Amino acid sequence: MIITENISLKTNGECDVVNITHHVETELAKSNLKNGIVTVFVTGSTAGVTTIEYEAGLVTDIKEAFERIAPKGISYAHNETWGDGNGYSHIRASLLGASIVIPFENFKMVLGMWQQIVLIDFDNRPRNREVVVQVMGE
Amino acid sequence: MIITENISLKTNGECDVVNITHHVETELAKSNLKNGIVTVFVTGSTAGVTTIEYEAGLVTDIKEAFERIAPKGISYAHNETWGDGNGYSHIRASLLGASIVIPFENFKMVLGMWQQIVLIDFDNRPRNREVVVQVMGE
Amino acid sequence: MIITENISLKTNGECDVVNITHHVETELAKSNLKNGIVTVFVTGSTAGVTTIEYEAGLVTDIKEAFERIAPKGISYAHNETWGDGNGYSHIRASLLGASIVIPFENFKMVLGMWQQIVLIDFDNRPRNREVVVQVMGE
Q1: Closest-approach residue (CA) in chain C for B5
Q2: Whole-model pTM over 0.90
Q3: A11, A90, B28, B74: which could join A121 in a potential S-S bond, CB 3.0 to 4.6 Å?
Q4: Do the Cβ atoms of A87 and B50 come within 8 Å?
Q5: Among residues C89, C87, C66, C65, which one has the least CA distance to residue C75?
Q6: CB < 8 Å to A87, chain B
Q7: Chains A and C: how many Cβ contacts under 8 Å?
Q8: pLDDT, tens digit, for every residue of C5-28?
Q9: Chains in contact with chain A (at least 3 beta-carbon pairs closer than 8 A)
Q10: Model-level ipTM above the cut of 0.95
Q11: Count of CB atoms situated within 10 Å of the CB of B21
Q12: Tens digit of pLDDT for each residue in A90-137?
């Protein structure tokens, strides 16, 4: 059985780290499936999905890490194409990846105790985001 | 139901970014499945898969990003093992990841309007690549 | 059909790269499924999963790559929250990702000849790790 749902979120951009674990748990509970996978996929090319221990220190640290990996202040060819100034946002999103797959067993995702699912919005402005949560199982 | 197909591609290496969205859409259409996931997996350890807004500026930018993250010109222990000089290619591929999973709903992948699926070939020479596209759904 | 198994591993931390391909192959063989996906997911927020050509040179190279991407010696806000000194471990894990999905066809994963599945433990001390291997197919 397969259930596909959308989560709509307002984000602030600039490496906004949003804890979506509870949203995903809610969709899993609604599906009433016992075993399988949840696929979390963000539509758009300036945001990504991963897991992290969601606490204020690491939220700061991940922003600084992405600033080292794909700095905002350097030149991006993308900015000459569109002039929207978010070349760094696209590169960060492509590096992190748009999706994550989490197995669940006995109605519960196999996350660690401190391991949360997060959306990271890399865009250079606030956005309305759609995150697809698809539950597939039996 | 599960359908597994191979896409064969010629790539140029050196961070060649190949838009494979249409190939994946074709395999999804052939499956005639309505809801589920498409898994895109590249065999080999010097290429990866992600999503990006596929335009010439970002293709340039992603090459430069990988040159910062795992530079070609520094020393790699791998090159002493095999002498094939592509240590940077392996490292880039392992960082990006070999697979991506995209949900589809009502016969259509949930990609954003500008979000394309790309194979990035990091090897230091042209390659023939096999990309596995597996459609699982109902 | 869905089978969910746990692999228990002792790791050394500090970017310990552990080849788990054989463990995953064993779970796939036990499932007796012909076609589908294997999802490999590491619980916890200081380890990740990817594929690599598993040889000593690249094991060294990937450690050095992560030291460039998220250096151990710089300041992390996380370390002020908990004092456990593993902020860099968390950041590396979130960048690499906790899961990978590998299609299998005709009882065999579609890995390249030199492409192995590895757990990378980024924590700053030895750990007991649980890796979930879930086989879904028909």
Answers
A1: C105
A2: yes
A3: A11
A4: no
A5: C87
A6: 57-58, 61
A7: 101
A8: 999 999 999 999 999 999 999 999
A9: B, C
A10: yes
A11: 17
A12: 999 999 999 999 999 999 999 999 999 999 999 999 999 999 999 999
